[in-house]
Amino acid sequence: MMGGLHIEIAIMSMIGSWLTGSGWTDILVDAGVTSPGRAESLLSCSHVKRTTYAHQVTVAALVILEGHTHKSREICSEEPYLDFDEWCTNRTEESVQFLFWSITIELDVLLLAYSLSPRESNFIKYKRVLVDICPWMFALDHTNYARWLPVFVKTLQELEIHHHSINEEFMKGKFVSMKTNRSFSAIADDQLHKQSNKKIKEIGGAIGLLNNPTALLKWTVGGPDIVKMISDLDLEKIRNLLRKDSESILLLL
């Protein structure tokens, strides 16, 4: 299995290659979505959470702007009415700039669809999105993933033929790991591994913990309560992030 988190990072890096030189980072800085010092790092996905957030805000703003432009044309123009899809097709043929940002929407939607599939433990969607991503790895010259991602996809597609029992388990959602029993909490195995490593390598590390009986006892007894407090805190953080997302999208419009 190729790591789901590392594939997601590669997708964001690939989109960064597409957006290089487009002024995307300048727009995000002007809108206050990111700072000047962090803007360029979004192109290479140096920080997964920040880069994902930037793409979420970008695609939301672009889709809203498309809708507003179509409605304003309907009101002001004397030309025959065109439905949204037909209007978009005509605009991509007339304007290179419109085509560029339409492709940006397409790439960001692929990224978000890929991010969604492990969260939902949806193996069919996971394979379908990977198939759509493969040509872009070739087009934007990401050699390693252009070479090996199609091999990985073909292996997944042939599981039903060569390893039927494994395919059945994957269809049940067991190609990812569940941190809790809550829906939408599944994550890729390599992401879980990184998170586990971070927890065990905190101040003192595993050696400092296991060599100190008092520290080990505190960790064993207090661990469940600490997890509960962190979970409760996460709910409040999610509410704050949702408010921040709405404000950032409005700034881009």
Distance linking N and C termini: 40 Å
As laid out across the biggest beta sheet, the strand order is 1-2
Query: What is the averaged pLDDT score?
Result: 84
**Which outline best applies?**
globular
Number of folding domains? Answer: 1
Residue windows where pLDDT falls under 50 for at least 5 positions: none
Total helical elements: 14
Major beta-sheet overview:
2 strands, antiparallel
Assign a percent range to the helix content: over 70%
Give the arrangement of secondary structure elements.
Layout: H1 4-19, H2 24-30, H3 36-39, H4 41-44, H5 48-76, H6 84-94, H7 96-120, H8 123-139, H9 143-157, H10 159-162, H11 164-174, E1 177-178, E2 186-187, H12 189-200, H13 205-210, H14 213-252
Antiparallel strand pairs: 1-2
Helix pairs in contact: 1-7, 5-7, 5-14, 6-7, 7-8, 8-9
